[in-house]
């Protein structure tokens, strides 16, 4: 195989290691594979390494073909050191994610000092627009190889070689095709002084007489799309939701199975009627009702028909979501798929829109001094420029997480993203992605945004919101407090003070320029300005020192309190802090007044339209006055607001928040003003079987509502338990007890368990316990959200531990997820500042405020368990608390079976029987379906099982007896 390979680079080694984990101090190297190109001669190195400790079972699943017997009979690391060193010589090593190899070599093989070149870093610089840069993703995008990464040393080294070859071929081909005046190599050497010695720099220069044909696996397509062939259909769009009955439309192309559901049609009809009448409606659509499908079809057809009639205002829908995951799902999958089926993909425009701070600003990027001082900064600058240079990309949320970490981009984002105040999209002439999206808004038919942007929609002059669909609408119950709060953050204010003399450009410099351009009408006293700035900083430091001396932070959490109605032991302290905050506020005013006076005296009554210096200074002065007003408002006691003091657990910053308690008025004023029609959607809008709570909270008492009946029989498909023997969540032994129960459950169910926590500290404690309990077993423990996909693998026994980010957006139908646990009910602490304000000022009971948010969260969590008619399992509340009123209400609102208060032992005793019954039921449903359709069970069963994400397999048929198996459960019988 090595004889067929060619490397564009000579005198290099492509190397890959496999390890038992990610942490070099607690994990071992178990395989090294490498391929060397030296003076046009190819040699390879490949060895397994016998580990000293335990190898997690997941490693055998990850590394294709790796066996325990083979691994433990391999030589030790000490026995391969010498041969490895001889093979490597002093040649540079090319590794994919080279920092990984670097840290393992530094710890386990410190004698290896070779330069390590990271091919992932190369890929990011050459092609900065990819969302994933792992080896598998790049193999599929930059090569035509039809294979997957197998996580074996030599094979992955060869794949790395081919990816590097492909990246370089694509670079040079692109430069030739576009006839660039200056190549990337020339650009780096002219504009990036700290990258002249970058390990990849010299390799970016194309060799003379280079032959592309030697590398026939290279893909030269910018983007690969899996196109589905669709037959041309004549569609009567005036039928709207009635088209849901036409399976010919939805099964066209055969890329997904479609089943007509009457409830979905009724649901879709309600959205259309609401849109046509210009009304507001709340619709609760349970899991499995086809919610997204139902509203996208109305938005698509409605905008299309109105665009034909030249009704511009009605040819546009805004879809607002809470999570980034749903926003991406809509843009990347749901909307394009539905438009293609409807033959509208080329007739309608759609896209996502975010706040200005999400987009790279070319002008600010080019002025960012922090990117000019070292190799790390130059690499980040090169990456961001190449990403944003043509205005085709620039959304920082779409940058790969690995790249953000690799180039330390979070350090620079504040300095290089668009500034809401100074960004003038109408006058901007740079190739800016935000400006591109901004200019596309007027002609866009479907625009997807998030709820926080909806609360302060800043693009009204370009696109008015006429028809609005608010998906994940339940989140507005709590999020509206954040949306409409005013917040002073000490660290951000310090950064703004730095702009006085250190910004680029700084405020003093702008003042001097402005003064010069108007004939030096003022004398700018820099020392006096800086004196006033230092006075403010002194007052900020006094406050922070007060917080420390009062020891307000205790434990591992940030401190927070309602400032005017704290708990009794804090009342004296908050009273002492009032004059300190007032002193801070009063110290801001002289700086504001001085700067404002300077500007007024300089410009007088002269025309200053279009003067950037004036605009930037004026914006800064307005912000300064806004900060003064914000602190003034915070110090004013009011029964209409919660005043919240928050202190970072490390005392790095403090925050002062003014939170409105009556958010309904603000929803109507800031979110829904002038909106023609609004549809609120969620699977969890009702509280106590009624829409009244959420409608009243959001100021929508007159809105209509519609309830879609449950799609699944939750009473038959699930059981809910509230454990009585785990103790309270703050007991010393609680983590140990629940860890043992989680482990015992996972043994019985062969994994496929999701455990959700209200905070990271408990999650981390359970993770540590389970790591010890699962040693030597086949059970894996994961905490990363991307690990959710492991649940779909019947050969892996996984426990996934998640926090609040896992409460929504987890969709694992079939046998993959069969048990969901919750560490405790998500009650608010009685000290939660907004709760204290509501109960004190509005005279509400604790439960009146707490239960609605608790109900919504628990319904969302329970909803992770059942996503299809074949789903089943246990929902277990590990600490249900002591309030039986809450449990009774939850039992009613969840719409499932009776919540059984019982012991962990009783749950474990009945588990095998319950799960076998559910599995047997699913098997019978599939068999009966195949028999009804007169299909050959022997030939069709496997496909049917996979279609429904079942783990059932047909083991064989002997003498008319069928043998079926679902992991460790077997059934035999004649059909």
UniProtKB/TrEMBL annotation:
Residues in Helicase ATP-binding domain copies: 250-528
Source organism (scientific name): Clostridium butyricum
Protein's name in the database: DNA 5'-3' helicase
Family under the similarity heading: Belongs to the helicase family. DinG subfamily.
Biological processes annotated in GO: nucleobase-containing compound metabolic process
InterPro entries: ATP-dep_Helicase_C, DEAD/DEAH_box_helicase_dom, DinG/Rad3-like, Helic_SF1/SF2_ATP-bd_DinG/Rad3, Helicase_ATP-bd, P-loop_NTPase, Ribonucl_H, RNaseH-like_sf
Reaction(s) the record says it catalyses: ATP + H2O = ADP + phosphate + H(+)
Keyword terms of this UniProt record: ATP-binding, Exonuclease, Hydrolase, Nuclease, Nucleotide-binding
UniProt cross-references to CDD domains, sorted A to Z: DEDDh
Cofactor(s) required, per the database record: [4Fe-4S] cluster
Pfam annotation, one family: Helicase_C_2
SUPFAM superfamilies assigned to the protein according to its UniProt record, in alphabetical order: P-loop containing nucleoside triphosphate hydrolases, Ribonuclease H-like
